[in-house]
Design brief:
- The structure is a homohexamer.
- With about 350 residues, chain A is α/β, with parallel strands linked by helices.
- Chain A has one domain: UDP-N-acetylmuramoyl-L-alanine:D-glutamate ligase, CATH 3.40.1190.
- Helix content of chain A is about 35%, strand content about 25%.
- In chain A, helix 2 links the parallel strand 4 and strand 5.
- The longest helix of chain A has 17 residues.
- Chain A is globular, with a radius of gyration of 19 Å.
- At the A-C interface, strand 3, helix 2, strand 6 and strand 7 of A face strand 3, helix 2, strand 6 and strand 7 of C.
- Strand 3 of chain B pairs antiparallel with strand 3 of chain D.
């Protein structure tokens, strides 16, 4: 595994921590009387994965000032995330209820997040200057600015300071249309924030949303879209996309592709025939990209991210609790399930 | 989804409610120290599915006069079944112990039902006239008359009154040879009761059992058998069959076919590669037929029933706890397991 | 058990249905990875207990339009509550997280309810006229008007119509100071609504809150307070109080006392040395009062309510899922735990 | 611990093996979706306890010829019971559903046993001659002859042969009035079988049932009753009684008393303030008696049996899975719960 | 099923009993707070499978003299293994922690066994002469001599006596390189012990390890290797190999091949698309061989062993708890998962 | 709560981290098929409690280099312990199996620790100089030097350096006679190490073990013993004792007493009638002392420690996961179990 002359500062992530509650044994909610829970949220998932990879990671968020918030903090600490910038406030933690699908039955999510501790965050809650001390990467997604005006403003302040400090910014600016209830135009906001970023984790859909274009799915369309994106937002250096084919909720295929600014790269397709948990697989991909950008060349980065994404499908919960070695074994083709003793 | 000028009365089902007890985590009974339980039984499963589809459904049965019977009633109420004609009697509720199979290992069922509350039912226990108030569909299966003389007589009285009242009767007259211990000739009884029915849910096997014929599996044999059935039992309007191929206990394929009295219809085959629960899939099909007959044309009915049957393989327990919308999505081809947020 | 010439109409309750989530095995939230859940809420608890007593009960509320709301409805149906006036709306169901105490460690509750489906209820959501058809009792508590302006207005409309229709109204007007965030003065509101009620379930604390008085705990103070309450609110016919002594979270003592308008009544103290669940014990008392008012004389009513309250401490979950016979056995002194075969 | 010149042959027990199914966490059946299970039955419980004490024990019964029967056999083997005389037959295993009580709430049992594998036993199913090879103790209870004519006849044949072979017979002839459905007069049968026994495990209630007397509870009444019993049934050598006071389902007190034919003996009362499982405590007492009769003098036997009974209240399931040493520690007063490392 | 003129004596196995601890629901160890446990170990697994096939089997080992050792003995008794030669000693029972894999994620095992009760076994702990009374088969594997000098010496004494007594010895002499910490050369030891054996369960890898050869995988290489093995160790009569292809941890394919001394035999490949438990599948194969050698001709033996191995993938835990009939059904092609009622 | 002019540096603890495995629901090990697990160990328990109190705490130990060790580290991080000095080595983590007692049945522990990762620690594994950076308290117990020569030497080096650096050292030097297998005289070692300490957490038993004296239990004996201890080991400033009375495993009473060098102090006795978990209650006391010494006067310290000890009996697992506020409420007399909303 070829090492790149690496960054050594910490990675900072910003976003909502959600409690995920889901029935076990493929039960529907109304058949169940107990729920498993995990703490997740797209940006925390990236943080957890990076911490599992051994990086120094800090997550910035607000949690509730009660035993649920305590549990959220414990959960972040458990995976090794620095929680020193997590603030406890008098609003409940965001929640989502996941009814996991199986086979042809899709997973269904019900959210309770729009009045929670993160939705109530404001720029006053975060001391970005302190947070960015010895930081060299900052990661954000399109979920945070969609939650509330305060979340958007808080993120924007962070991004602006990150730019000033020369911190590399990665963006996963997916547009989730059923959020964005507080009055802002989501696509415009995502465009604005993409303009403050360096690494774009997304594909033609995301680019089309932001630019108002209608690029198609094919390789050359993806390349054209990426170039167009760089033209509009010159800070963007690279575009990393993930392509998924769903045979069923239990059987998925994924591969990665990228535009490095110079070259088009792609990976082999990995197939997961017995999905354990579909949530957070995109975040696992993003974490793979971030780890790769610090340690590998681009092709290795893309292969690593796709393997991380595929491996996440076998891990229960929101975060990809695997080591660099475990991901690398998938990259190296050890997918036959031989027992390690 | 094209609506048929619909029936608006309630559906009535009649049959044993069984407590199903089964180990979790693929354990064999002797490896386990706890059992999950569900209440089911082929006719109650149809009722539960129809209630989940939003219909007004009443189930007629006897349950035990103890906390197990209370739980059975609670369970029916929970899914929305009208239990006002359920009687509590001093005999234990029927039980079955299911050791769920996996892969090439078959599921194994052990019954304890032949001296239970339903086996002790008699015509005096049911006020059919009251039950059939504002009812326009009645569903029975070949299991009920196989349990005991009393169950047979009770059902027969119901069927005769249903005929008188012009209620549409659907029959699922499977012949289960290891029941029928009380002295009656099962095939003769099923023939008699089929003669009181309008919709036949079954295929060449069931027709052969009842008529003593030996039609083969092929399409034209199925059509010939259906016609012969209608010839013998002129009340039968339509025949709906379900064809299953088992790759393993965990991997099944199903499609439906029908003789509408005028045309042969068939559906695409649906494949379930990760079966959660195989029990009650036939009942899900029957419920799909009943729902379809009230709301759709025949082809849509058949597609809907097959999709319902396939979807049931992903639902834990005996009953198909899904909505019309969830089934329709499968009919419409959304089987890739995309998360619904 | 002496029967009173009884009311035969239904009982209506109004209030929030909350999902309760709590760790098992005495775990703290941060030690746990799964949560048991129940649906409750003070008024639904009363409804569930009355349904278990065999009464016809309807609960009026809004739930979320998702699988959590479906589960809430299923749960109400399961215990036999009429859910025909439950409305599904696009706001999440209220939740509370209970970390159950043990011994000297108190239970701790964290709420997430102030922006939920019930908090968003408005008078337009309830057709009180239809609800009160064939109703002769209506029960409310001080929680509902504390949640939101809409909940207050909806309740007030109901109460006014109930008065017009001559429905007996029971009030459990506890003042919960950490609610009442929407701007109204809680004590004034409770006074207003008490003025529309007939049965007061509460003691000197509740009377003091509403009247601004400072009666003490002793018998004659309780009597004086009750008389004062009747003086201020002439519709109030009877006052039922419940007195609790907590040795620890696991060891509680309860007795009841009442002012019938004419006499002071009291019960023996019942001791619960191994509390299973402390939640909903007051609601069990209220349900005992309501049942008693329909079936018993006042002393029997009070004894029955206190026994119901005590018995609830042995039942897991929010609602007192016991029969009239089970409560009566406690009234009759069968508390030694002899096995019933 | 003083040893008596001991018997070395095996102990034989005869009786139904029941599957016990009960909700966990103090749930009521209708609140639960899973059940713990154990195999028990009064005579098998005695066998299991004796096997845990290190004796050679054989249990004689019929079980179902299915995976439930397999599990029952596995369970007996697990505790070290010789199952070589257990026969598999085509009737379901007997079941009981236990809703465990707590505090003032009593445990409730619902049986499903009257048409099971044991109810269908006949003398042809047991080769008593082979069973009694190298046996020197035989234990029976009043449950077996209450189940069915066949069970009664099978037991009677065993008892007669045991008498012939000079095997010591212990009887626990409790009269359970809600059994005895097959036509025999239970009290007469118990009297007949007591006449074939040597050790009587029971008190004045049991003696009164059998003799039609009405002795009171006091010591001298117990002595008089015992003497009367010996007068009527000269084979009876000793009478061992167990006295229980139930504070609640969770708080019990027990002591033992005996008539040795010559002397009245009694034990200190042991108090169990946190009952884990009340089932099988009488069987634990009986096993203590049987073990004591082989190893100890009478006072030690009585103390040992009472300690075994008390200790069983702390053991989950039907059988007293404790060692002689664990019981002896209670006899010796080590009841303070000091951790053994 | 064609019967061979059979051996009727018992089978003896020797080896460590390990407690296996593993998270459920595909959790990683650090995500879990509870662990399922089973007792296993390669030779005990063979014993358990043979006992489930109905053979008389005795297992020889040391376990810990504590409640873990008690549980291990209970577990062996439960499946019907004779434990009369199991010794309890003052060293902890060996343990392994299994993090079960899924899909492309491999299972990971962490051992704690090198200072346990079995590692401390010495020849003085086993009375081989008594053990071999009425024994006609003895089975050993390459794990036992790898654990400690004492285990090696104890096994060697057993093998030498087995040879003297004419007992058929089967060897599964896999070389596990990460064991063998106590100083002996593993390959030399395995060669020595193979020289005392009659049936070789292993393939070219195992032969190459022992002989220092480098035969390839192909059929003729396998035959040549087998012949070479017989040349070096003339007591070896037959060689049974098992060939596995891992698509993923959840999807495996297996077939068997053998050199009977005269002929090359092979089986159809069986495919397991939903692996429940991969552990002990080789032991299930070995048990199939041992059962077959006593009851079937060689081709049937090989087919039976391969079917047993395949079926074990569907059974939770270490041991193949299936009957001869269940295996034979797979041999006969009933792999479609039809429910057995 | 009166604050003492406080220390602000971190607290360091040193000792083995054990995985605790125990059946749930009061099961005996041989009745169970799953085990709950926690990570604990007397010194880590102190660290966890102090971290829950909000202190900066670092734990020094070796863990296994496998997924069990990973889980141990995660568990320490979760509660907020600094794990930067935890080393991963190629020996298995120590384990103990706890069969929890109930009522008169004692808890039973089986250890597997004498060849584990901590037993293999050597002075080379710890950089004490780095560890003690900004540390002002160091805590040790008598367990660590009892495990192995290496553990003893490593601890002694730490203690000597702590003395040099003026760090306050607290000792909990219980003599556990069934450890000390490696050849050293335990009492002599404990005396030596006590001579390097400042705070003695122990009573007359511990003093008698170390000094070879035979002081009695009474107050004046305790004072005399404490004075004698100070005479022998002049560095000892204060002696804190904890007195326990066990009514049963489920019912315990505790109070504290101390010799401050000048005064005898004692607390009220606290009673726990429903013990959830008895393990780690002494460690909770020690943590209370350490916290108190930094924040309170002596009497408050003693009251706080006793309350912490009592509260721990209500917490599942080894560590006292409670806040300072929760303990203080017990000190303030809020033990009645009122629900906190």
């Amino acid at each position: 595994m070829q090492k790149k002359s690496g960054n050594t500062g910490k990675v900072v992530t910003f976003g909502e921590v959600l409690m995920r509650l889901s029935p076990s044994e493929n039960r529907k909610m109304r058949q169940s009387n107990s729920l498993n829970f995990f703490f997740g949220g797209t940006e925390m998932n990236v943080a957890a994965s990076l911490a599992s990879f051994g990086l120094n990671v800090q997550h910035v968020t607000n949690v509730s000032n009660d035993h649920v918030g305590d549990a959220a903090i414990s959960s972040m600490r458990q995976v090794g995330i620095d929680v020193s910038a997590v603030k406890k406030v008098d609003h409940p933690l965001g929640i989502y209820f996941l009814e996991p699908g199986s086979g042809m039955r899709a997973s269904v999510i019900a959210y309770n997040r729009l009045h929670g501790s993160f939705a109530n965050i404001t720029p006053e809650d975060v001391n970005w200057d302190e947070v960015f001390h010895e930081c060299d990467y900052f990661h954000w997604t399109g979920i945070s600015p969609a939650i509330s005006e305060g979340a958007y403003q808080t993120l924007r302040e962070g991004l602006k300071l990150a730019r000033e400090k020369g911190i590399t910014v990665s963006a996963d600016p997916a547009y989730r249309s059923n959020l964005w209830k507080y009055g802002k135009n989501g696509k415009e906001v995502l465009a604005e924030l993409t303009g403050l970023s360096n690494i774009f984790i997304g594909g033609v859909n995301e680019i089309n949303e932001i630019l108002g274009t209608d690029f198609g799915f094919e390789e050359k369309e993806f390349i054209a879209a990426s170039k167009k994106l760089q033209q509009e937002f010159p800070t963007i250096e690279k575009v990393f996309d993930k392509v998924r084919t769903g045979v069923s909720a239990s059987w998925q295929k994924v591969y990665g592709r990228a535009w490095t600014g110079e070259r088009y790269l792609t990976t082999a397709e990995l197939e997961i025939t017995d999905v354990v948990d579909r949530i957070g697989t995109g975040d696992a991909y993003a974490a793979g990209i971030l780890y790769g950008l610090r340690h590998f060349e681009d092709q290795h980065t893309l292969d690593f991210a796709n393997a991380a994404c595929a491996l996440k499908h076998t891990i229960l919960g929101d975060a990809n609790l695997v080591s660099v070695e475990e991901v690398q074994e998938i990259v190296d083709g050890s997918t036959g399930g031989r027992i390690k003793r």
